Structure formats: C-alpha cells, structure tokens
Amino acid sequence: MTPPPPSKAEPARAATLASLRRPDLATWALTALGGVCYGAARLEAAWAWAAWLGVALLAAALARPQTAAHAGFAALLGLAAGMAVGLPWLDAMNQALFGAAPGPRLAALAIEYGVSAGSIALLVGLARATIGRRLPVWIWLPLAWAAGEAVRDLTLVQNLDGWLVTQWRNAPVLRLLGRIGWWPTLLACLAGAAAAGEAAARRSWRHGLPAMALGPALILLPALEAGPVQALSELGALHLLDTHTLPAAAPQGVRLAAWIWPEDALGLRPTLGEGGARARSVGPLAGLADVEHVVGAITVAPGIGRQNALVVTRRDGDVVQVRAKRQLMPFTERPAFGIGARIYAPGRAPPTLTVAGRQVGAIICGEVFDRALFAQVRASGAELLVVAARDGFLRAAQAQRLALGIQVLRSVEFGLPSVRASYQGPAAFVAADGTLLAESRPEVPGVLTWSPTRGAADFDLRGRPLDAEPEATPAPQIEVLYSEAAEELATRCPAGRCHWQPIEGLRCEDQPRREVVVVAGHGTDKAWLDRDAATVAAAVACFSPRLVVVDTCFGASVTLLEALARRSRAMVVASPRIVHGDGFRYGAAFFTGGSPADRAAAIADPNLQPLLRWNLDSEVLVRLRARVDAMQPDALGRALFRRNPASVRVDLDGHGPVVVPIDWRRLGSAPSPRRLHGRQRSRAPTPLPPD
Question: How far is CA 262 from the centre of its chain?
C-alpha cells in the first residue's frame, strides 16, 4: 500500500512554526518604539498622548504571529526602553539614597527595572500563552498590564511609572477616574489604546470598536465637582530648601489658620508617641502668628522606637496630636529584597488629624502611593488631604512633577482637595476635580497660600510676595558654626537672621564681624564639632562676637571655656550636660537684637535645666581651677558629675554650672552620688568653698 502524497498545507505549516521559533525583528521594533513613546509621556504632562500611542504600538506588535516567549521578551524590551527614556533620574535617585557605592545602587536599579518592567512582561507572556489564543489583544493585554502594575504596587509600593500617572493633566481621563475609580479607568484606557493598535495591525475596523466607543465617551463625560475647596483657605504650605531656615514672619496681608510643614521639615527628634494631646512641646516655631502647625518630625516613641510622624502643635510648640507613617518605603525605611534596614517603626494611629478645626487626611510623603490609606481617609469624613513630602531625593524636576501628579490623581479618585508642603520640591493646592489651584517655585523657599477669593499667592520666608520687588535685607547678626558631618544639628533661625558657616575649610580673614556666634553640633568632654577646644575658640574669634552660644553637649566644660577666654571676653551661654538633639530653645528676643544679656536670657535648655550665662574671664577660671584643686575627697565625691572621664560640676559664682575635669585618684574612697550625669539632671551644682 503506497502512502498518501504529502499535503500541500504541511510545508506552509512547517514554515510558520519555524518563523515562530525565531525572533520577529519587526515585532521587537514595534515594541521598542512603543516603549520609547510611553517613556516620552513620563517626561512631560503635555505628552500624555504618547502613552496611548505606546500601548497601541505594543498591541500591534502582539497581534502578529509569535510564541508566548517572544511576546514576553518583546514586551520586556519595550517596557525597559520606556523606563530608560522616561525615568532617566532613577540612578541619580538611588545614588542620593544609597551613596556612591555601586553595589546597593545598581542592585536597587535592577530590582526597579525587574519589578516594574519584568512583572508586566511576564504576565504578558503568560496571557499570550493562555487566554491570548482565544481572545483579541485588546482584552488580554489590559488585564496582563494591570495585573503587572498590581504586582509592582505590592512589592515596590512606589508607582511613579504607572500608566495612569502619565495622564494627570488629561482632563477627560481625570473625569473618568473620578467616576469609576483607578482600576476600571486603567483597564478602559488600555483597552481603547490596544484596540486601536490591534485594528491597525489586523486591518480590521471591528477590532477598533472599543477605541471608537471610548473616545466619544471621554469627551462627553460631564465635569467633576471641585470639592470643598474652601477647606484649603487659610493654610500656608511651606516649600523649604534646608532644615534650619525658619519663616521669620507670616505672609503679608494673609490670615493663616495653620502652617503645613514638609516631612522631617526641621530635623526635630522629640520623644513622642502617637495619639492625642501630650504634655510635651517641640519648642516655639520662631514666633509665628498664633496658629497651629502640622510639622514633620522623626519622633522617638517610648517602647516602640523611631517613627516618621506628623505632629500638630500650637504656636508655643505644645503638642496636640501625633500620627506616624504606616506605609514605609522599601530600601530607605524598611528592607526589601535584602537591601536596606528597618529604620522606622510603622505607625498604627488612624490617618486623620484635626487641624484648625478641620478633619484632614494626613499623608506622609510615600504614603501617597497607598490607595487603601486614602480609602480610609475618605471613609473617616475628612474634608481635605494634607501631604507632607520630602522631594529632594528625586533629583529631577520630571520626577517631582510625577510625584505631584500622583497627588492630583488621588484628589480626583477620592474626591478630596489637597495641599502639599515639600522639602526641596514644589508646594501645591489641588481641587478635587484635578485643577492645580496653586504651585510654588521650587528653586526658592517660601510659603504658598490659596483662597477662593484671592487665588494663589507665594511668599518668601520673611512674609513678602515672591513676585514683588526685592527689598534690601540687612546682614545677619548671628553666625552659626557647624560641622558638615552633622549638618542636621545646625541651629534653626528665622530667615535673614543667621548665616550658616561650616567649620571645615573656614578662612578667618574672609569673615565679617557678627554680634553672636552659635557653635552647633556634637560635643564631648574634649572635642566640639569634632575639633579640640583651641580650634573651636580660634574659629569663634574670627567673628569677634559679643555673645557665644555653645549649643552642644558639655559646652560648659572648663577646657573649652579657657580656650574661649584666651581670645575673648564675650558673654557665653552653655550647658554642662548632654543637650537634646534639637538643641537649645531660642525665644524671639534672641533673634531680634538687643544686648548680649537680653539675647542670652531668651535661650533655654529644652529640659529646663540651668545654663551657664557668664562673661568670659581667664582670671576667674584660674581661680576656679585652684579652688577645685583645693577640694577634699568628700567634697569631690559630692560634686562628682561623671566617673569616666572623672569630672565635677560646680557653680561659677552664681552664673551657672561648670564642669571641671579632675584626676580620679583624688577621690580616694570618698562616696559618690548614686545618680550621676544622664539621670541626675535636676541636681544642683555644688557651690565652691570661699577663696
């Protein structure tokens, strides 16, 4: 029996299978071009249309005959190209977060690419292998894409590269988002774009029906409501460039009910737990108007640890409410994929605060990505959203605009107006329909305001309109000496009152005379700002001050006082103890001028412990040394301040406490106080015996 002749269809089928086994360059070119278009849409909000074109090109590529593996690899190529084009700042951001060391920085970059592009590409390949055999591309591609974005949201949390983020200035898409929510809007838009691409690839108008239906629907949707925008009035949103320049005055001609400060705005480290009013204070905030403040701070919660929090205070600094961040960011605030460490403990308090009589949703920086948190805020009956951000690490204007875009999308989706305060980024007011009511100039510090009648107004930190003719600013009278190794400890001052000078590389001959010098930073028994007493005294003498404030631990050490007294007879203010990380408290009189004594009287220890206030005099210190040298072992034991290194605390002729080092062998067998420094903060200094 002779076999039947081969079918004419078999060679064609074999050729088709062979073509599927090798990469289709045209398909890969389409996906790469689509990825570039999608990336371009991330660079400028006006290029939102390019994101639609990118999805259409990807759908056209996936409509071509190919294996599931080729489809997944093609999608990975396109999405990775889109990230390279649209997120060029990613590596700079990682360098800001992890430093110049290439290991963690490049590992984080690989994870970001792998999760953001890889999750969508993997699901595209899986969908192509399963439902893609029976369903058109415009159905299964949006499902795979949305599932990939959901995976990214669950792992990296941050979704600056989401498709809808490119549409934050696209009014028709915002109208749809405000009516049907995030995922339905994403699926509808992706389906419309994919249908257009698939129809072009297959030359079939039937596959383009979803696109033809979506376009008119977006255009005909009625406008959204702007929401209770009156809740945004009388709020001042600060946009700051450093953590030590405070506002010197309220905006001229504007009544404010509350100031909104950025995340970790001032480097404050108060000991506070979450919840309602506490009998604690974070200090007065530079004598501003008698209003409330929402201040970003790193709190230390007893029994819990450090938390990234928002603190509501009155003008005098008394704490009203505390709410800690719940959604911690991967890598920088909690570990992810083996990179990073747990820096903060997550908060547990509800995400709402009462500010100036208004119920607000309090969002701390990266929590803006957590849609579940916003749902809780809306369910709580909040009137508006307050976003306290820290944008400097993004390192690019495009990235900061995308972060602002996320805020706009959240306001639209949840129907709440919002206000943003930012560190090294723009402040903004946003209506619930997505209208950008006001936006600050990020290159200058100031306070942004908005009201329904007056509109937007931006002021500098001295209360003057930023668009007004600049006024002559007198030279500051206060010099703050600090170390670049501890810049966060530099003393905070109202704008225009201080000049900040790192001690590293200080050139004495270039310095003007200042009325006051503040030495701010770390201090030990033998070193201040990581320098010995002679070096610090020489740096202070460069400015010929009349008042020297040693805002460090152990500033009232006789070792430092002797070095200062050799060069000056200025008044000095210092503490013999460990000083709280936020430094001394400075009243308004310290900054506004007056005699050294008047300025010194406006300085207080945060724990209300006595400070040394005294005019430097070398002869008095010589006599002080002699009198301590004459003290008997029992007297030394009663005055003992620290065991290692051994030192005693004595009163300097009624001017305050001073620490004097001694040879520990002089104590002999004399008993010492049971509670020494660090715990005996209320113990009075031992008076010296008479001459």
Answer: 7
For residue 58, which of 140, 169, 150, 153 has the smallest C-alpha distance? 140
Q: How many CA atoms lie within 13 A of 470 on its CB side?
A: 5
Contacts of residue 300, Cβ cutoff 8 Å, sequence gap at least 6: 269, 270, 271, 272, 306, 307
* One-letter identity of residue 369: F
303, HSE (Cβ side, Cα atoms, 13 Å): 2
What are phi and psi for residue 388, nearest 5 degrees?
-100, 110
Residue with tokens 């919660």: 301
- Both tokens of 76, joined, read 């990975």
Measured CA to CA, the distance from residue 359 to residue 353 in angstroms comes to 6
CB–CB of 211/195 below 8 Å?
Answer: yes
Contact between residue 143 and residue 127 where contact means Cβ atoms under 8 Å apart = yes
Helix 182-202 to helix 209-220 angle (10° resolution) is 140
- Token pair in block for residue 351: 């995400």
Predicted confidence (pLDDT) at residue 18 exceeds the cutoff of 50: no
Q: Hey, what are 50's tokens?
A: 């390019």
Q: What are phi and psi for residue 424, nearest 5 degrees?
A: 60, 35
Question: DSSP letters along 480-497, please?
Answer: EEE-GGGGGGSPPEETTT
Q: How many Cα atoms within 13 Å fall on the side-chain side of residue 33?
A: 13
Q: How far apart are CA 59 and CA 190, in angstroms?
A: 10
What is the secondary structure of 304-362 as a DSSP string? TEEEEEEEEE-TT-BEEEEEE--SPPBTTTB-BTTBS---SPPP-S-SEEEETTEEEEE
Closest-CA residue to 474 (of 462, 458, 486): 462
Provide the pairing of β-strand 498-502 with 478-482. Answer: parallel
Tokens of 509: 């001959």
pLDDT (tens digit, 9 = 90+) per residue, 33-60?
999 999 999 999 999 999 999 999 999 9
pLDDT score, position 628: 86
Give the integer Cα–Cα distance in Å for 369 and 160: 9
Q: CA 403, CA 383: separation in Å to the nearest integer?
A: 22
Residue 281: strand, helix, or coil: strand
- Whose structure tokens read 């490119």? 166
- 206-230 pLDDT tens trace: 888 888 899 888 999 999 998 899 9
Q: Supply 39's token pair.
A: 């990336």
Closest by CA to 302, choosing from 328, 275, 263, 266, is: 275
DSSP 571: E
Is 75:58 a contact under the CB 8 Å cutoff? yes
Distance separating alpha carbons of residues 51 and 35, to the nearest angstrom: 9
Report the C-alpha gap between 331 and 349 in whole angstroms.
Answer: 23
Partner residues linked to 649 by β-bridges = 659
- Report how far residue 242's alpha carbon sits from residue 168's, in angstroms, rounded to the nearest whole number: 29
3-state secondary structure (DSSP) of residue 43: helix
pTM of the model: 0.86
